[in-house]
Amino acid sequence: MLSWYALTAHALAKRVALSLLASDEVRQPLSREIEFLETYRKMSWRKFLKYSYDILFAFSEMEQALSAKLEIVISSLDNMHNSNNDIVGVIEDFWARDNLFAFETAAYEQAVDKYLAKRTQITLWPVAFLFRFFDLPVIRFQR
């Protein structure tokens, strides 16, 4: 019985760890296995001997099927990893574009301020009158 307790303890720990990482399609069979193991983990000798064939057969079947479930979880983690990289890439691209936009708008506003300061100089008045370049619209970005 002690070896059975040890086996079920390890089996439960493996399945609980996998169920935390697994998607819904893998989590449901794992939760059924966890319920089964918790039901038959601690029992009397008589009950174990009475149901031992069914319990051990189900246990060995669960252990054999666990490798397939593990592959599904690992492949889903790889897919999640790729999608997380895609999501991280999109977020980084957004922030990079936002930072560039902030830099460009600040540079534009500084250029407009310099232009407005220069156009008030007396030396530019005749040229401004001839070419009418005072009509630059002032644009301010709300950041």
Automatic annotation (TrEMBL):
Domain of life: Bacteria
The protein, known as: Uncharacterized protein
